[in-house]
Amino acid sequence: MISVKELKNPHVVRRDLLASLVVFLVALPLCVGVAVASGVPAELGLVTGIVGGIVVGLLPGSRLQVSGPAAGLTVLVYEAVTEFGLATLGPIVLAAGLLQVVMGFARFGRWFRAISVSVVQGMLAGIGLVIVLGQLYAMADTEQPDTALAKLAGLPGLAVEIITDSEAMTAFGLGAGTVAVLLIWPRLPARVRMVPAPLAAVGLATAVAALAGLRPMVADVNGLLHAIDLPGAAEFGNLASVAVIGTVLAFALIASAESLFSAAAIDRMHDGPRTDYDKELVAQGVGNTICGALGALPMTAVIVRSAANVQAGATTALSRVAHGVWLLLFAALLPAAIGIIPLASLAGILVHAGCKLVPWKEFGPLWREHRGEAVLLAVTALAIVVTNLFEGVVLGLLLAVVKSAWETSHVQLSTRELTGGRVVVTLTGNATFLRLPRILEQLEKLPQDQPIELDLTGLRHLDHACRVALENWARRHNNAEIEPVTIRR
Q1: Chain-centre distance for alpha carbon 4
Q2: Locate the SLC26A/SulP transporter domain: which residues (predicted)?
Q3: Of 438, 424, 426, whose CA–CA distance to 466 is shortest?
Q4: How far apart are CA 455 and CA 462, in angstroms?
Q5: pLDDT tens-place string over residues 186-196
Q6: Contact assessment for residue 284 and residue 60, using Cβ atoms and an 8 Å cutoff
Q7: Can you tell me whether residue 38 is helix, strand or coil?
Q8: Helix, strand or coil, per DSSP, at residue 411
C-alpha cells in the first residue's frame, strides 16, 4: 500500500518514479516475449503486466516485488492453450486466482515456505529446459515439435535447417545476437547499463533487421481492445472437466509458490518492511482473477523485474504501480511498435531467461554437500521434461515426502551377549516400515540356539508394520528346544 505521507515526500516520489521507468523498460520485452512463447496474442502479456502493476501494486503484501507474466508459467500456459483453446484460458486463470484468494484468507501463504527448495529449483530448472528447447526453434522461425522429447530429438535436424536455409539462418542470427547482447551487457560501463539489457537487446535486433532490409517473422498486433476477449458462459462450463480442474490447481500452486519464493528473495535485498505472505497470496489471487476475467495470461511475482525495482532505488509501492501505468500508456498509444520486433529476438530473450532458471552453478556444491537434495532437484527437472509440468512437480513433491520420511526413520540395532549365553538386542531411534527390510535382515543373522531378548524401550516411534513384523520374527526365530525370543517394550 502507498501511504499519503510517502506521496507528500517529493524525494521519495521522484526516486520511485525513476525506478518505475527502469522496471517498465525491463518488463516491456518480457511481457511480449512471454505472451508469444505461450501461444497467445502479444497484447495479452501487456494486459497481465498492467494488472500486475496497477492492481496488485495497490494491494498489501510485498511493497517492492513486481508482478506480471512470467517465464515460469510459459510451458503450462502453452499446454493449456493447445489442449483447451485460448477461450478457456481466461476461466482457468480466473478460477486459479479465486483459489489463491481462498488460500490467502485461509492463511496458507506461510505453508508454501515449507515446500522443499530442491523441488522448487527442480521445477524452475525443468521449466527452463523446456523453454530453451522450444525457443531454439522459434529463434529459427521454424515450427517446433509438440513434446519436449521430440524437440530434443529434433535438434540435429534444426541445426541442418539453420545451416542450409538462409531465412532460418538470418532469424537464428538475430536471436543469437540478442542472447549475446544479454550476456555482454552486464560487463559494459555503468553509463551504458542504464538502459536495461532486455530492451537494449530487442532494440538492437530490431534496428539491425530494419537497416539490413531483413524480413523476419514478427508478432501479429491488433491493438489492446481487440486482443481482450471476455470469456462467456460456454467457456466457464469447461471448468467442469477433470483435466481443466487439474490445470487450475497447477496454475494456482505453481504461481503461488513462485510468487512467495520471489518475495523471500526480494526481502533479503532490502531493509524495508517484510512481506506478509498471506496478504501477498490474496493480492496475487485478485490479480489473476482480474486477468482471467479479461482473458489474459496468469501472473506471478517476477524476480527479474522485482530485483530491477529494488536495485533502481525504489522504496515504496509507487514504483510498481507507476510501471503498470507506463505499460498501459504504451499499449494504448504505441501498439504498432510491438509489430516490428522480430520474433527470433523475443525467443532469444526467453532462451536467456530459461537458462537462468536452471541452477547450473549451485548443482555441483549441492551434489557434494546434500546428494539427496541434488537427486530430488534433477529428478523433478527431468520428470517435467519427459512428462509435463504438473506431473513432474507432483512426482518431485512425493519424492520429497519419501526422502523426508526415510531420513527421519533412522534406527540403530546393537547386540551384546550376557554371561550365560543370553543375547540382548537393542533397537533405538524410529522404527518404520521404510527400515523394516534392514532390521529383519540383521535380526535373521542372530543365532537360533541362544536365548534372545529384544529391547524396544529405546525406540521413539514404532509403527504398526514394524511391531507386527518383530512379533512374528520373535515367535519363529529360535529353535524349538530354546526358549522363545522375549520382547521388552
Answers
A1: 35
A2: 14-380
A3: 438
A4: 12
A5: 898 888 887 88
A6: no
A7: coil
A8: strand
- Rounded Cα distance, 420 and 455, in Å: 18
The contacts of residue 36 (CB under 8 Å, 6+ apart) are: 42, 45, 138, 219, 343, 346, 347
Q: Kindly report the backbone phi and psi dihedral angles of residue 317, in degrees, each rounded to the nearest multiple of 5, phi listed first.
A: -75, -5
Please give the order of strands across the beta sheet that includes 423-431. 411-417, 423-431, 452-462, 486-488
153 phi and psi, to 5 degrees?
Answer: -65, -25
Residues 6 or more apart whose CB falls under 8 angstroms from that of 235 comprise: 87, 88, 90, 91
For residues 67 and 255, is the Cβ–Cβ distance under 8 A?
A: no
CA–CA gap between residue 282 and residue 153 (Å, rounded): 42
**In the 3-class helix/strand/coil scheme, how is 157-179 assigned residue by residue?**
HHHHHHHHCHHHHHHHHHHHHHH
Asked whether 109 and 103 are in contact (CB, 8 A), the reply is yes
What's the CA gap between 190 and 368, in Å, rounded? 37
pLDDT-derived band at 113 (thresholds 50, 70, 90) equals low
Nearest to 274 by CA among 113, 124, 52: 113
Residue 114 in 3-state DSSP? helix
Cα–Cα distance between 6 and 13 in angstroms, integer? 7
Q: Please tell me the total number of residues recorded for the chain in this structure.
A: 489
**What residues does 218 pair with on adjacent strands?**
342
pLDDT digits (tens, 9 = 90+) for 399-414: 888 887 777 778 888 9
Q: Dihedrals φ, ψ of 69, to 5°?
A: -65, 140
Grid coordinates belonging to 242: 477433470
What is the three-class DSSP state of 452? Answer: strand
Q: State the residue for C-alpha cell 508478432.
A: 219
d(CA 359, CA 364): 9
End-to-end CA distance of the chain: 59
**DSSP output for 273-323:** PPP-HHHHHHHHHHHHHHHHHTT----EEEHHHHHHHHHTT--STHHHHHH
Integer angstrom CA distances of residue 194 from 21, 256, 403: 11, 32, 46
Q: CB 360: neighbour CB atoms within 10 A?
A: 10
Query: 12-48, pLDDT tens digit by residue?
Result: 888 888 888 888 878 888 888 888 888 888 889 999 9
